[in-house]
Write a structure and sequence with these properties.
With 275 residues, the chain is α+β, with helices and mostly antiparallel strands. The protein is built from seven helices and eleven strands.
Length: 275
């Protein structure tokens, strides 16, 4: 897969190590990321520190959606100051991405941080791919391009998202909106037209003000339903590849209302949200 890597930029450097040229600090850091994976290399210059504890976090973003997060930790010594942290994305990427990398280090001399960001673009094998309904994604977990999504500022695992898709609507605009927001995000991440991103951002903003299960009333409920309608229309766009074995057909509302017959899932969802 072809890709383009943009210039890496260091956003911020914070360090409160002992002043002086001989303080322990990371040196010659090189951060790269592309459609295959990421790499974070360099070494530490040791002053009087006997060792350095290192924690690092790598976050892959598609727009404002977190696609992948990798965390790790290490201990470095003067006898082995060089490090090479790297990983591969466990999915095929398509579209524009940003990678944020954070290195936190601490020793008896103090602590510090290094923040880096880079962006790249991955070509899509099938640009303008199909969109699918919440029912499709609920019944085809093997087709999910990611293992977690963020809805309204809250990150949910795939298992938790499945519970949300099983939740009965019962007149709560936040629940039906979450169903279609999940489907829309998965469709975009799966290579479908990203022209819906404005409504996706609007749905996230709405759920930040009116969290899942909050049952907004009046104008707030109408606003949530209008955003849901736009996402629903996008998720139900016709596709040339539609077939009975890959696409859930029929009335989407009926498919979602059927979740109301699953009290165990509803109980699990309430417990999940209360935690």
């Amino acid at each position: 897969m072809k890709y383009a890597i943009h210039t890496l930029a260091m956003l911020l450097v914070l360090a409160v190590f002992t002043s002086g040229a001989y303080a322990t600090h990371p040196d010659e850091l090189v951060c790269t990321a592309d459609c295959a994976g990421w790499s974070y290399t360099g070494h530490f210059y040791f002053g009087t520190a006997a060792y350095v504890n290192v924690d690092y976090t790598v976050t892959l973003l598609s727009g404002t959606t977190t696609v992948y997060t990798f965390t790790g930790n290490d201990v470095l010594y003067p006898s082995g100051p060089t490090f090479d942290y790297n990983g591969i994305w466990d999915m095929e990427l398509c579209g524009d991405y940003t990678v944020n990398m954070h290195l936190h280090f601490a020793s008896n001399e103090g602590w510090g941080n290094r923040y880096y960001t880079t962006s790249f673009t991955c070509d899509c094998d099938e640009p303008g791919g199909c969109t699918y309904t919440p029912g499709y994604w609920k019944n085809h977990p093997e087709a999910w391009p990611v293992s977690s999504l963020t809805l309204g500022g809250v990150t949910y695992s795939m298992a938790q998202l499945m519970v949300i898709l099983d939740a009965p609507v019962r007149g709560d605009a936040t629940v039906i909106l979450a169903h279609h927001l999940i489907a829309a995000k998965l469709n975009v991440l799966n290579g479908a037209d990203d022209g819906i991103n404005g409504y996706i951002d609007g749905a996230d903003a709405f759920l930040m003000i009116y969290p899942l299960f909050s049952r907004p009333k009046g104008e707030a409920k109408e606003e949530g339903e209008e955003i849901k309608d736009a996402l629903c229309a996008y998720n139900e766009l016709p596709c040339e590849e539609d077939s009975d074995d890959v696409m859930v057909t029929g009335d989407v509302g009926a498919a979602l209302n059927s979740a109301a017959e699953e009290p165990a899932s509803w109980g699990s969802l309430k417990k999940l949200h209360e935690e």
